[in-house]
Amino acid sequence: MPDILVRHIDDALADRIKDIAREHQWSINEAILFALRRGAGLVTDDTRRELHDIAMLSGTWESSEAAAFRAAVEAFERVAGKPLFSDDPLTSQVPK
């Protein structure tokens, strides 16, 4: 894929791109690609809504839901700051 360098991005645009990335938990690059695709007419609100509706039916999580789930799982995987499960019997907290 080709790389394109964009120069002279004003502060307002840079801040908005960062906001979009933060809102969707995307990288800056993903937010810029989304904005470019949408601006070029390759993604419309209708297209996005349809993709989202299909994703909901198939059980796909939004990025914020996936991040919340990952954080919850990570919290449950550690007890008192130590891994809950380990291959090392000396560090594992699971009773035998």
Helix/strand class: mainly alpha
Strand/helix succession: HHHHEE
Task: Indicate the proportion of strand residues.
Answer: under 5%
Task: Please tally the β strands and state the result.
Answer: 2
Our count of helices gives 4
User: What strand line-up does the widest sheet have?
Assistant: 1-2
Percent helix, as a range, is: 55-70%
- Tell me the radius of gyration: 20 Å
**Overall pLDDT confidence:** 75
Q: What is the rounded distance between the termini? A: 53 Å
Total domain count: 2
Apparent shape = elongated
- Largest sheet report: 2 strands, antiparallel
**Low-confidence stretches at least 5 residues in length (pLDDT < 50)?**
none
Give structural notes.
The protein has 96 residues and is mainly α. It folds into 2 domains: 10-60, no CATH class; 61-96, no CATH class. 56% of the residues lie in helices and 4% in strands. The chain contains 4 helices and 2 strands. A two-stranded antiparallel ribbon has the order 1-2. β1 (78-79) and β2 (82-83) form a beta hairpin. The longest helix is centred in the first third of the chain and has 14 residues, at 11-24. The radius of gyration is 20 Å and the shape is elongated.
